[in-house]
Description:
Blueprint: H1 2-16, H2 18-46, H3 51-91, H4 95-109, H5 113-126, H6 129-139, H7 143-154, H8 160-177, H9 183-204, H10 209-230
Helix pairs in contact: 2-3, 2-6, 3-4, 3-5, 7-8, 8-9
Amino acid sequence: MKQFLFIVALAGLIGFTPAPVRAQTNATDKEQTSLEKHIKPVLAKLKLADAAKAARVHDILAAQFAALKTWHAANDAQIKPLWNDFNQARSAKNVVNANAALDKIAGVYASFKPQHDKFVTDLSAVLTPEQVETVKDVLTVNKVKVTYNVYLQIFPTLTEAQKAMVLQDLKAAREEAIDCESMAEKSSFFKKYKIIIEDDYLTSQGYNPKQARKDFAEKQKAEAAKKTADE
């Protein structure tokens, strides 16, 4: 009888202990797989021939993505409603409330700034300035270049100085967007700077962004119709 009870107790222990261990291992593997999924396209674009340098960049990226995950888990509950406030204020053309929402968003992100600065500093210690730019572009799906090229089409008469200012603002958007996890929020930061570019800067330079966008859309529509007719 004692032997039977011992076997039952032992079976209970065996059945009980591995479960959390397996769960913990699976979670770690899943997180690592997610990290590698984000790191891979950056390293692929950099094409680093130096294995030691590639390993160092890999570790910097891994640390950044892990920090992003932890920070957003703690702060997204504050950030998401603020973006909703911003979008609602923009729809209502309430500039004061829109700017107030952006100020609050910036206040939340201020706590991530030390990690942001560390990330850029660590990358800069290993990579050239051009390569650091490449990393930022990959992390924001090349939004600077794509958006800039569209601006050149919508506003074909931009001067070199005006082009430089537009590019500067788009890179500022990218700098904030690399601290986001979701693509939707990255796009929101670019929207923030598009408003600055169009409503503030280009308007002050004598452009009518709303009319320019309308003209561009009509031009695209006409070109598409012509292409269809030619086919």
